[in-house]
Amino acid sequence: MTKAEYQHLLATEGGADQKHSRGYQSVPVTCITYSGHAIQAYTLQTRNVTEGFLPSFRYLKLIRDGSAIHGLHPKYQEFVDRYPGHARNPCAVLFLILLLLLFSPLLIIFGLLSLCCGRGALIPQVLFQCLSKTIWVCTCCMRLRLFSCSMTFS
User: Model's pTM, two decimal places?
Assistant: First the structure.
């Protein structure tokens, strides 16, 4: 992976913001190759470790497919195949749809207000940022509430 590709990965996975406690942090690791050589690499690690959270089945499928495509060791593939995951909670999907229906008109209004008033107008920008953060907080609270009690499957 080139440096530019890694920077793109950081940006798309929420790891580009190294100054704050959100998203992922880039962590150097030593990997041992199948031939026994040690190489330096980087991995993305969450900044907010929460016990009991499992990866989604969608994410596990990406890991499983990738390990098969790239011919990773069969023991690793077996490990990933047995790793538990969680299904998306139907209540969470409904909540996200309702949240979007509730807040999207306000986002559109504040976005248009920001465009009409120009980049220098502080009030529309502040309102838009507050609304965006409110939506983010609501989504995080919903995830903690609904996913922490979601069923796990192996």
Answer: 0.50
Residue 82: partners with Cβ closer than 8 Å, 6 or more residues away: 154
Contacts of 77 by beta carbon, 8 Å cutoff, 6+ apart:
64, 67, 68
Q: Which residue has the tokens 């900044």?
A: 47
CA–CA separation, 12 and 5 (whole Å): 11
Amino acid at 105: P
Q: 102 with 62: CB under 8 angstroms?
A: no
> Helix count (H) and strand count (E) of the chain?
5, 4
Distance CA 25, CA 47 (A): 6
Mean pLDDT of 148-152: 43
Q: Tell me the C-alpha distance between 40 and 28, whole Å.
A: 7
30-42 pLDDT, tens digit per residue, is 999 889 999 999 8
